[in-house]
Amino acid sequence: MKNVPGRLLAVVACLAAITPAVADDSFRCGSKLVVTGMTQAEVLELCGPPMSKSEEKLPVRSGNQVVGETTTYRWTYASYGATRVLVFDLDVLKSIK
Length: 97
Fold this sequence. Notes:
The protein is an alpha+beta fold. It is 29% helix and 48% strand. It has one domain. It has helices at 4-23, 40-47, and strands spanning 26-29, 32-35, 52-62, 65-79, 82-89, 92-96.
């Protein structure tokens, strides 16, 4: 029983280390949860229009050769005092920064 505080501290430290990895997979937009894998239409339905939008055309490579092009969209939202940038590849939400 003497080691219980030490074990509890170790568990809390482990959970704290995991939290940042989870935070980039979702964010709250009002009472709704936005998660990676959603479409642009789903995010618009939950959050409304973003504060700002940008788009960038990027080459798609296979080895050293360019085999096509994709469009990346970045949408910026303010949520609970923090700014979140949602990155879409074509229509699918790939990351939340």
